[in-house]
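call fold(seq) -> tokens
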Amino acid sequence: MTFEWSAIWAAWPDLMAGSWMTIQITLLGLIGGTIIGALSGIVVTYVPVPVTRRTLAWSVVVLAAAAILLRLAAWLDAGPLSGVPDGVWWALRLAVLVLLAWRFLSWIPLVLSFLAQVYILVIRGTPIVVQVMFIYFALPLLVSLRIDGFTAATVTLMINSGAYIAEIVRAGLLSVPKGLYEAGQAMGLPFHKILARIIGPVALRRMIPTMGNQCIISLKDSSLFIVIGVAELTRQGQEIIAGNFRAVEIWGAVAVIYLVMTGCIALALKYIEHRTRIV
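ret:
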């Protein structure tokens, strides 16, 4: 069997289209995942709530109470309060939520921290293929909302990378000496300024290598979205091979393209590390 370069040149436009789709999914997924992960990591770090049997039991009780209230609201909406205008009904719901939030204001950070820990635990404990299949096939059945493959892939990558980035952020923040936080408090700075001006820059330098590793992993994980038919690079390669049967040439080209993309990420991170190095 001879290696035919002409098969690669003929398939090059489709491979580039798949590469662009892969870059879009990865870029959007990492941007969203960074936002989710940063917020989750900060909350988990500075509002520690141990996930114990007691906290799990309380969460079950709260979720059961919320489910009962939702069922009661649905019954009232369909029965005794069916004649009430929708605007008044939604205003009443909003007033109840505001009242509950005001009454249990001190619990909100604890609840957010607990939910962030559960989110990290669930996402890190399930394969990304299962997550994308759930979002693409099962979620529309639960909420009656149909989403396309590109959106499902992007949202899945956001959620998946966000859980891992949250742990990266938590590790980076915990690696900063406690004295820096106390120094910021001694200067009278509020928490957000301490985080942005003192702790954040130090932690960010330490997070660069692991964040770069996560970027590369997310880029390669995008190939798994072939299971829902997203026209990313791997899917394009599979469809091209189904037409010309040149597996060696096409998969070799796909591998080289992935290597180039991950190499560019690695070089960019090396540059950032060099620029942010403390001398």
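Residues 5-46 form the longest helix (42 residues).
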